Amino acid sequence: MNSRSFLLVIMIIALVGTLSITHFPVVRAQTADQLKGNLDALSLQIKALDDEIKAYNTKISKTQGEAKTLKSALSTLEARRVGLSKDIAYTKLRINQAEQNISFTQNKIQNTESVLEQTKNALSESLRILQYYDHSLPPFVGALGHGAHLSDALDLTQRGSEVTYAINEKTRALKDAKTTLSVQKASYEERKTVLLTLNNTLAGQKQIVEQTAYNKNSLLSETKNKETAFQALLAERKKKKGQLEAEMLDVEAKLKTVVDVSKIPKFGKGVLRYPVEKVIITQYFGNTPFASQNPQVYNGSGHNGIDFGIRVGTPILSAASGIVLGTGDTDKACNGVSYGRWVLIRHQNGLSSLYAHLSVIQVREGDSVSSQQQIALSGNTGYSTGPHLHFTVYASDAVQITNYVSKVCGTNMRMPIAPRAGYLNPLSYF
């Protein structure tokens, strides 16, 4: 390499040195500043509304039990509507925040791509000048031409013994910029996933508000705003619940499935994950005090799952990856006496899980779901003494979605059923 070509290369390398990611003039800097300001303002709004919702939740938590009077039932429905309205406002703020974060990340990606391209072009120009003045070039030069892949140049640079230390340093800087770009793009995709989940939650919350208004109108219609009619309605539902439980026990007894214990995992922590973020267990598995004190509800057979105390509209998460075996709504066949809206998922470890009393179902039969994927929003459908999630774990070979004609309800019932040996204690697997 002659002295003139070497001097030209050094000059262009110096130019390349000014194009680092940290010093390159920010593309649309004003927009980036505005986005940052918007994010800060949104964070303050979200925190304020979050504090307001927590205070409201504390206030209405006292009304989460079964309504004993028509007045309390109507009051609970109205409180639920107000609470859901606050939740909707909160979700909209978080959607706005996610959108702003996406725009902010896009801005950073554009800046990094611009730095990457200009640095690559400057380095390519230095080598072009070298070629013009000195035909003895290292083998990686062609890889930096127009339309070439940066990875090819990086690989050849590492092998090229004739490359100067300065060019090697700038090539490493290009590799760092490419890594930074990959991280930013991964962040962008993650934020898009968050936004999709939030949009699904918002749609579900709006649907629950509509359901709440419908339930209120239906209750007024059924009772004609009379307390005596409401009490008769409660008594009838409780009676049917007990009769249906007895009927289901008979159906379960006829199932010939034998549980193969070798196909289910050993008891252990972490086999399943909790289906809710905030874990408050209100009833356990088996012959719990409530089950024993209310044989008319469980027919003396114990509680076949565990209950989580949560507000209506709380996201419900899959306890493990798997396939949605089915979804349903027993209220369509026999209102207020069984699971209400439910989802059954078959996992890959020999277990299946049921999620019941839901308000909104967000998956369909045949869907593949990942662990902790949002599958529904909690509710108070079916026979429920207050908003909660009923969660059951089965040996997969034992459970089946059964259709049978209910003598109690006079309709076709469709729900997951297993022989008693097929029901497992969920707490053995969390």
Distance between the termini: 68 Å
Beta content: 15-25%
Tell me the total number of β-strands. 12
N-to-C series of helices and strands: HHHHHHEHHEEEEEEEEEEE
**Gross geometry:** globular
Report the biggest beta sheet as strand number plus sense, adding barrel if it closes: 10 strands, antiparallel
Number of domains: 2
Helix content: 40-55%
Number of helices: 8
Mean pLDDT over the full residue set: 80
Low-pLDDT sequence parts: 15-30, 158-163, 295-300
Structural class: alpha+beta
User: Taking Cα atoms only, what radius of gyration do you get, to the nearest Å?
Assistant: 31 Å
What this model shows, in words?
- This protein is 50% helix and 15% strand.
- The protein contains eight helices and twelve strands.
- It has helices spanning 3-17, 29-60, 70-133, 150-159, 165-223, 227-254, 289-293, 295-298, and strands at residues 281-283, 306-309, 315-317, 322-329, 341-347, 351-361, 368-369, 374-378, 388-395, 400-405, 412-417, 423-424.
- The longest helix has 64 residues, at 70-133.
- The strands form two sheets. Strands 1, 2, 3, 4, 5, 6, 7, 8, 9 and 12 form a ten-stranded antiparallel beta sheet that branches. The protein has a two-stranded antiparallel sheet with strand order 10-11.
- By secondary structure, the chain is an alpha+beta fold.
- The model is unreliable at 15-30, 158-163 and 295-300 (pLDDT under 50).
- Strand 10 and strand 11 (412-417) form a beta hairpin.
- It has two domains: 3-202; 241-428, Glucose Permease (Domain IIA) (Distorted Sandwich), CATH 2.70.70.10.
